[in-house]
Amino acid sequence: MRPHNRRLTNAVRALAATAVLAMTLVAIPAGAQPSEGSDEMQRYQELGAAAAQADEDLLGAQADLTNANNIRDRANADLAAANEALARAQAAEGQFRGTVDEFTAESFRGGQFARLSAIMGSSSAQDYLDRMSALSMLSANNMEALTQLQAASSQAATAQAAAAEAKTRADAAAAEAQRALDLVNQRRRDLNTQIRQVRQALNALSASEREVLNTVQDTGSYLGPPGAANDALQAALSKRGSEYEWGATGPSEFDCSGLTSWAYKQAGVSLPRTSRQQYTVGRPVSMSELQPGDLVFFDDGSGDPSKIHHVGMYVGSGKMVDAPTEGQLVDVRSAKGDGHYIGARRIVG
C-alpha cells in the first residue's frame, strides 16, 4: 500500500474510533441504568427512572407535610398560650374595675359631705385627724386601683391582639398543612400509577433478562479513604443482593437514597432522607476528583437539582453501588447511571 493511502486509511480509522467514543457519551434516555438489550428492557429502565422521580416527589411532599404539621402544632400551642394570657389579663382587669367602681361609688355617696361629717362627728381634735387620714387613704387607694385598672386594661388589649394574631397564624398553618396533605395524597397516587407501569414492564421482560436483574453481578472488593467514608462504603457494599423497595431505608430493603442514608448512618453520619436533600450535604466534587464513598447524583437531563431522582455511592474504577429500581438488587454498576449525571458530593473529609 502506498504511504499516502496508508495515511488516509489510518485517518479514517481514527475518525471512526472518535465517532464511536462520542456516541457512548451522548445522553441516554432516562432509566436506572443505560438502556441495553430489548425494547422491553429499555421501556422498563425508562419507567423505572420516571417512577424514581415520582418517589422523590412523594418523599419531598411528605417532608413538607411534616414541616407544615410542626408549624401548625407550634402555632396552635402559641394560640393556646395567648388565650390563657388573655383570660388572665381579662380577669385582672375585671378585678381592678370592680375595686375602682366600688371606690367611685363610695366617693359619690360621700363627696364633700364626708369631710363635713368628719368635722361634725369628731369628738376631739385627734378624732378629727384620724377621720381625715382615713378619707385621704380612701382617696389614695382609689388612685392606686385606677392605675392598676389602666395597666390591666392595657395588658388585656395587648393579650387580645396577640391572641388574634396567633389565631391568624394557626389558621394559616392549618390550611398549609391541609394543602401539604392533599399534595402528599396526589404524589402517592402518581407514584402508585408509575409503580404499576414499572411492574408491567418488568413482567414483560424475558426470563433471562429478569434473571440477570435478580443476580448480583459484581462481588469485588473496594476500599475508600480511612474513616467514615470507607465505613459507609463497606456498609453499602455489604447490602449487595438486597431487594429494592419504594421508600425503604433498610436494613434489608432499600430505595436509592435509603441505601446511602443507611450506609452513612452505620458510619455515624446522619444524612437527609431524599437524594435531592442529600445533594445539599457536604461539598461538591468534580468527576475527576471522585473518591470511594462520594455520592453521585442523576437528574432528568435538565441539570436542575430539583429534578434529581437517583443517588449512588462511588466505589472507584468508574463504578457505584446503588439501589436502582424495583426488580433490581443492590449491586455495583457503572457510575454512568442513566447518562444524566448532574454532580457529586463528598460527605466527609
Automatic annotation (TrEMBL):
PROSITE patterns: NLPC_P60. InterPro entries: NLP_P60_dom, Papain-like_cys_pep_sf, Peptidase_C40. The keyword Protease applies. Keywords: Coiled coil, Hydrolase, Protease, Signal, Thiol protease. Residues 65-92, 149-208 form a coiled coil. Residues 226-348 form the NlpC/P60 domain. The keyword Hydrolase applies. It comes from the Bacteria. Residues 1-32 form the signal peptide. SUPFAM superfamilies: Cysteine proteinases. It holds the Pfam family NLPC_P60. PANTHER family: MUREIN DD-ENDOPEPTIDASE MEPH-RELATED. Belongs to the peptidase C40 family. This is NlpC/P60 family protein. The lineage of its organism: Bacteria, Bacillati, Actinomycetota, Actinomycetes, Pseudonocardiales.
